[in-house]
Amino acid sequence: xxxxxxxxxxxxxxxxxxxxxxxxxxxxxxxxxxxxxxxxxxxxxxxxxxxxxxxxxxxxxxxxxxxxxxxxxxxxxxxxxxxxxxxx
Length: 88
Description:
Layout: H1 20-49, H2 60-71, H3 76-87
Helix pairs in contact: 2-3
């Protein structure tokens, strides 16, 4: 009846499943599950936020041109001509 020190059914820690090997496999499984959950949350957040596109950036040159026109450094005709060049 007495099984001693590693002999017989149910011997050792984890019932004889090889100790560390099964433990590492079990831990790796849960790490993969956790990674899958995190990736799923990231995908969900990006898909929900993806519908809101950022407005296109204005040209820095256009900002400078508008400032010069507002200060009176250039005339209306020159402003319109350069604005047309910048916008294409």
